[in-house]
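retry 2 of 3: previous attempt timed out while embedding 2-(butylsulfanyl)adenosine. Reduced batch size to 1 and resubmitted. Inputs unchanged:
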Amino acid sequence: MERIKQEIEELRAEIRKHNHYYFVLDQPQISDREYDQLMQQLLQLEEEYPELVTSNSPTQRVGGEAIDQFRKVEHQIPLLSLAKSFSEQELYDFDQRVQKLAGEKVEYVVELKIDGLSTSVIYEEGKLVQAATRGNGMIGEDITHNIRTIKSIPLYLDLELDLEVRGEVFMLKDRFLELNQRREEEGLDTFSNPRNAAAGSVRQLDPKVAARRPLDIFIYDSTYIEGQDFESHSDRLDYLEELGFKVNSARKVCSEIEGVVEYCQEWTTKRDELNYEIDGIVIKVNRLNLREQLGRTAKHPRWAMAYKFPAQQQETEVKDIEVTVGRTGALTPTAVLDSVFLDGSEVSRATLHNQDEIERKGVKIGDRVIVQKAGDIIPEVVRVLADKRTGEEVEFNLPQECPVCGAEAVRLEGEAVIRCTGGACPAQLREEILHFVKRNAMNIEGVGPALIDQLLENDLVEDVADLYYLKQEQLAALERMGQKSSQNVIIAIEESKNNKLSRLLFGLGIRHVGSRVAQVLATNYQQLDQLITATVEELMEIDEIGPKIAQSIVAYFKQEQNLEIIEKLRQAGVNLEADFKQKEASLEGKKFVLTGKLADFTRSEAKGAITELGGRVTSSVSGQTDYLVVGDNPGSKYDKAQKLGVEILNEEDFKDLIDSE
Ligand code: IVH
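retry 2 succeeded.
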């Protein structure tokens, strides 16, 4: 038996080695046939000796059955997004800002910005244990079963390390084309671009389906690697590469911002030569302690920046100009276009922003225009091709009254937008409710645009709080509703009463209060009533709150109408309190070492609890260690800690320590 076990292990090691050559380094050392033979041998042995099959065998990438739904995963360290720059000047500005904060010249790493999906992958003792999507940055979805099918990600490492890597899941262009061709032959819908194909594949409930999709992953960062304290991001990437991860080789260290700009220019022209899509360049401060010093804003780290390539442009015709009314009552003109393809998707509408923009660009109905995606997302009209005019074009002016409720539309001094003044404008209310029920706000499933329209048409709601006073009979009486779905809606509304305060704060739609700011407010104020009475000065004492946000919050709670809504929410039993106590960085600077198995925490949960309170986890006990947390079967770290007189905590002590904070 021992001999068989050894033979199996040798085969696995051999296959892993060739996986690495083929999928990570792109340098196969043996033919496909030889590789298949090795795999066949292993499969045969594992079939004969099923007791020797382990979850990290190369045969087990597609392990397990399909799941019913994705489990939510809380990221211990949020996945932030990057601030974007669209010009070289913005890169120089970024460098100036960073140098000013650093007080010295700064070295950067530049990398390709892969156009895929960001993913966190966690290893415990060298074994891949969890992979999750970015989600809203704080909470993602567990996609371990699908990430395991990606051949370029090691299922286990040669070293038994705890670590987290972050990377981008993507699809090679040629493999994407093959996939689409295969789908076409099978009569299935094709994907519009590699990114959508990758996204659709990662979100499969059945790993067998994901395994047939040619997914791949580049690793671009790590949040912790047990026992390693790197000075620079580039050293860390090199180490990740040594560990067997696929790290993009086009990365480069630049000691000057000029080098960064050159790199951006170079890839702007060379990007099409790559067999994967990139949508820009990422510029990162190389020194890791400087990163810490620079910190972050609510959404972005201050130590990095994305340089976006100039947008693709297309010529088309403005067939009409429509006006929509937004949540804040703003009347926005939108050009209806002859559809064109831009950066991989079909575009048939483009924003014209406001009347000033229409006039500045001189857009008329019937004009030939150039369109592009602003910031790569929202299509906009760049300019009019005036020499293609026929004389048939029609000038456009925003109406003086709201196209939805007929109330006067006015332009306040100093503002570019024209707003509807109708207090009860259904268009505004519709947008407010849509925002309130959104997934990252109150998350009320079943209340979508169609139902909201029906509620408004039947005068069943006049503000968001009215949702909580709806009766099932009222809903069931609406067209296309029925008993079952009306009951589900009532249950979803009822459940939302227990949401965290931060969700409500975001859902209220206070200007400049996004979901991150809402969380900051909930943590700092604990109760909505305390926030209502906060002053601008008080709010601005909070790290991430600037004057614009503070003023907007105070203005919101001054309005009688808004206070009435809150009163109605309170009467309905909606939670107005934060359910967690503000955690201070009470373990700031404390060094922890973990040993043995804890009953109530996985390694990464214990680490998360420590780092959340400002502590650090290191791998080996030294005179610098403050606490050793001991679980079942502790190793030699226990003896060493005793010798050095390091404070030793059992699981109960550890819980007391983190709970008391
Ligand atoms: S670093 C703090 N490096 O771009 C954020 N991101 O908005 C650190 N991306 O969703 C991200 N290639 O998934 C980084 N080489 C790269 C990247 C990269 C693609 C994605 C990432 C994130 C988005 C940033």
